[in-house]
């Protein structure tokens, strides 16, 4: 696990993942990262799949301030998670993903494959975060963690 940032300087963590959801290994690594950093705020896109699963992991870790930034796409792709403090206005997916990055000190991403993909919202979010000089932690499908 990468030690970039610590519970002392990571106030908010944003999350991006795929509608396919996370592997059990990714969920376990996410839980370990959230427990290590102890963020005050957790931000996600409220989409079915990985966002919905990450929301549950954040609750299990005792994070009460969960901010949701939904996309203005087909409502069947929205998770409509119940718990959370803030629900932002729905936006275009790319704009929403930029807001997710800008809302945090660290982005945690759970891509579905072990390599970068074009035309992937998760990877587009990772690339944007890196351009913004944000800390990015990638949790691979096997649960391995890469911090940048």
Note the beta-strand portion. 15-25%
Low-confidence stretches: 1-7
Radius of gyration: 13 Å
End-to-end Cα distance, whole Å, is 11 Å
**Total domains:** 1
**Which topology does CATH recognise?**
Rossmann fold
Task: Please write the string of helix (H) and strand (E) elements.
Answer: EHEHEEHEHEE
Per CATH, the class reads Alpha Beta
Helix count?
4
Helix content: 25-40%
Number of strand elements? 7
| Structural class by sheet pairing and helices | alpha/beta
Mean pLDDT: 90
Q: Which geometry do the CA atoms define?
A: globular
Output the strand order for the largest sheet: 4-3-2-1-5-6-7
Polypeptide structure, described:
With 148 residues, the chain is an alpha/beta fold. It has a single domain (12-147), classed as 3-Layer(aba) Sandwich (Rossmann fold), CATH 3.40.50.450. Helix content is 31%, strand content 20%. It has helices at residues 24-37, 50-60, 93-102, 121-131; strands spanning 12-17, 41-44, 65-68, 86-87, 106-110, 135-139, 145-147. It has a seven-stranded mixed beta sheet with strand order 4-3-2-1-5-6-7, with helices on both faces. Helix 1 crosses helix 2 and helix 3 (93-102) packs across helix 4 (121-131). The model is unreliable at 1-7 (pLDDT under 50).
């Amino acid at each position: 696990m990468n030690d970039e940032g610590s519970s002392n300087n990571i106030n908010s963590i944003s999350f991006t993942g795929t509608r396919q959801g996370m592997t059990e290994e990714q969920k376990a690594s996410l839980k370990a990262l959230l427990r290590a950093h102890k963020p005050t705020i957790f931000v996600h896109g409220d989409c079915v799949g990985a966002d919905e699963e990450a929301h549950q992991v954040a609750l299990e870790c005792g994070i009460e301030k969960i901010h949701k930034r939904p996309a203005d796409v087909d409502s069947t792709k929205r998770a409509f998670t119940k718990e959370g403090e803030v629900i932002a206005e729905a936006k275009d997916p790319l704009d929403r993903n930029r807001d997710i990055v800008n809302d945090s000190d660290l982005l945690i991403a759970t891509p579905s494959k072990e390599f970068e993909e074009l035309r992937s919202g998760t990877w587009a979010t990772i690339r944007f975060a890196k351009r913004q000089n944000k800390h990015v932690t990638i949790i691979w499908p096997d649960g391995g963690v890469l911090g940048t």
